[in-house]
Amino acid sequence: MIYLLRHGETFWNSLGRFQGQKDSPLTERGVEQAKQAAKLLKEELAGGAQSFQLHVSPLGRTRETAARVKRILPLAARLEPRLMEVTIGSWDGMTEFEIDNEFPGMLDGSDAFDWYFKSPDGEGFDAACARAKDWLAALHGPTVAISHGLFGRLVRGVYCGLSKREMLELPVPQDGFYRLCDGKFTLVSASADAISNVVA
After folding, report:
1. Range of the domain at 189
2. Inside any domain, residue 110
3. Would residue 103 count as lying in a domain?
4. What is the pLDDT of residues 81-124, one digit of tens each?
5. In principle, which of 37, 47, 154, 168 could form an S-S bond with 113, CB 3.0–4.6 Å?
6. Which of 1-15, 111-125, 134-148 is predicted least confidently?
7. What is the pTM of this model?
8. What whole-number percentage of the chain has pLDDT above 90?
9. 37: burial class by Cβ within 10 Å (0-12, 13-18, 19+)?
10. Residue 133 neighbours by CB distance under 10 Å
11. Has 85 been annotated as catalytic?
12. Contact present, 91 and 122 (Cβ < 8 Å)
């Protein structure tokens, strides 16, 4: 059993700035999202938390989210570099608009999902998926993981055997988390009747 959380909203999220492996702090809303996720997770684990290990991307926004989670649900955490966000190299920290202006033509033919992998010095799709597969294969026992938007898509996609397009179009909410079990994933959220099923 895996519970996959995304960090709470950051200032750069709110500005449409792609963080990659750079960082910005959580907004007030992001802090509340982290608290809400922790409460939901506590309910979900229902006293069985001691059997779970907590893996956290070492980037600041995930560590900040993990600190909020641990206040409500004490779990022994370890930093897991394989959970870091996909880097887009020199484009980390930029918006699509800035990239299009500073790197003319580089985003030609891309859409709202695949532009991440157009960077000349970023991490490739196959390499990022290999990182997700490696992390999944190394798990021993029930795990809670705190990761990122794009990389969380890849983890779910690899877990369920989705195509590249299907992976990149997956939603990345910050007000809930995903339960991965038996080759499928389910969104656990306080909205939409608490739990929304996703057919994968």
Report:
1. 2-10+32-86+122-197
2. no
3. no
4. 999 999 999 999 999 899 999 999 998 888 877 888 999 999 99
5. 168
6. 111-125
7. 0.91
8. 78
9. buried
10. 15
11. yes
12. yes
Residue in the block written with tokens 């960090």: 7
The single-letter code of the amino acid at 51 is S
Specify the number of domains making up the chain. 1
Set 7, 9, 80, 148: catalytic member = 7
Tokens 């033509």, located at residue: 105
Q: Give the whole-angstrom CA distance, residue 87 versus residue 23.
A: 11
What's the CATH code of the domain at 155?
3.40.50.1240
Alpha-carbon separation of residue 43 from 39, 48, 71, 95 (angstroms): 6, 10, 14, 37
Work out the end-to-end distance of the chain between its first and last CA atoms, rounded to an integer number of angstroms. Answer: 16
Calculate the CA dihedral of residues 83, 125, 87, 161 and round it to 10 degrees: -20
Cα–Cα dist 98/42, whole Å: 41
28 is catalytic: no
Burial of 118 (0-12, 13-18, 19+ CB in 10 A): middle
DSSP H stretches of helix in 46-178: 60-72, 96-102, 125-138, 149-160, 164-168
Half-sphere exposure of 173 (CA within 13 A, CB side): 15
- Establish if 16 belongs to a structural domain: no
Token duo for residue 131: 């990182």
Kindly name the residue from 9, 64, 80, 85 that is annotated as catalytic: 85
